[in-house]
Amino acid sequence: MELEIQDTDVQGWTVVTASGEIDVATAPELRDRLTDLIEAGTTRVIVDMEDVDFIDSTGLGVLVGGVRRARGSEGGDVRLVCTNPRILKVLQATGLHEVFIIGADVDEAVSAEPR
Amino acid sequence: MAEIVLEIPPRLDYLAVVRLVVATAAALDPPLPESRLDDLRLAVTEACSNAIKAHRPEAADQPVVISCHLDEDRFRVDIRDRGPGFDPDALRSLPAPTDPSRLQHESGLGIPLIKVLTDDVTFQPAGDGTIVSMTLKRPPAPPI
Q1: For the whole model, what pTM was predicted?
Q2: Which of A29, A47, A48, A102 is the most exposed, having the fewest neighbouring CB atoms within 10 Å of its CB?
């Protein structure tokens, strides 16, 4: 998996672009990156998963943990950008599509109503 | 029936190789549909990940064994570890996604995913370990 942090400020959100496969072997890198951002006070994060073609339960757990930590701050959240049917299917199979705010692109993720 | 056997060290960085080999075997004629190959990749990753984590440290020099069984009407993959075993029915169910306490749980999705993604799964004690057997039905071969 490759992770790229776009430090560009998209209406107050920081975009983390992940690509490749997120599994138990690679997910710790994403966990560390999200934890570093949130602990540094960057609690409005978008994980762009458009170039992710595989995610397992550990990767999903990392995203759940990120959401929990981010939502602990006023206005904080970890939102997803994802249109890949493979990934969306896993989110739906686990019910996590009801936990995450998922946009078809960054603008849609940014403008979505908070949960 | 054909059989393809893969032995790996109990290391998580081998999971991508396991996914590749098992999905390639399942794509042999008659292939599983692409969407079911995705199900298989994820189910195998979850089961193999559990097997690697459960593997006893003193058995680190023994492999995790992945066996693919290609029958006319089904594809079965067995994953054998050298772990202490577990009772899959004893696992706690997770809170509903709409329950705020759901966010407290970062793990516990692996076995439920395996059950959803496969047509059949069994967990059997085997000697000094456990065999997880997962079956996906193959589509009937087209008439000649």
Answers
A1: 0.91
A2: A29
